[in-house]
Amino acid sequence: MASDGESTEPGTLRPGGRTARVRAAVLDAAGDLLAEAGFDRLDLAEVARRAEVGKTTVYRRWGTPSGLVADLLGDMAEQSAPRTETGSLDGDLLANADLVRRTLADPRQGPLFRAVIAAAGTDPRAAEALHRFYAVRVAEWAPCVRQAVARGELPPDTDAEEVVRSVSAPLYYRLLTTGTPPDAAAAERAARAAAAAARAGVFAAAGPEPAEG
């Protein structure tokens, strides 16, 4: 597929038409290659070959493997499943934990995230893209904690984002330290532990320093 003559920064491509089809094909190919071979072997020429896109198009639009990863993660954040609302804190956090579990256990998504996390340790642009991805996902789920505060389930000054992070953190830790995706029992433990800690005020804002006598 030949170049279409456009010059656009990653993540700012216009929706619809050939541009969108090219971007979708390239990001799909990049995700497959990341999952198969890791960040170190993410070759733009190979991505172009798999996507059936001209190499000049890929090099011009994304420039580097880091630029491609940044756009891929941005797209994944936009396409991620929406937040589940169950009407209870426990149910909402369990839904979040189960979504993380299923993502990490997925034969394509799991290796892809491991590759990007590894890349973030050495590549600043990959790290920035990963941070943006998780900022979007945490912001998507934080309202379930705020709703629990409004229902009186949690202290009023609970840090919603920290509660959400505390759900997924042990699941990622299990994956990274054992190489084994978390199972349903691990997801349930993570959700219950986060809910219990939130109710106990662990994630509430610190109060004022006591006055010195």
Automatic annotation (TrEMBL):
Q: Which residues form the signal peptide?
A: none
Q: Which Pfam families match?
A: TetR_C_11, TetR_N
Residues annotated to bind DNA: 43-62
Matching entries from InterPro entries are given as:
Homeodomain-like_sf, HTH-type_TetR-like_transc_reg, HTH_TetR, Tet_transcr_reg_TetR-rel_C_sf, TetR_C
Task: Provide any one GO MF term from the record.
Answer: transcription cis-regulatory region binding
Give the superkingdom in one word: Bacteria
Q: Where is the HTH tetR-type domain?
A: 20-80
Q: Give a yes or no for keyword DNA-binding in this entry.
A: yes
- Do the record's keywords include Nuclease? no
Q: Which UniProt keywords apply?
A: DNA-binding, Transcription, Transcription regulation
Its recorded name reads TetR family transcriptional regulator
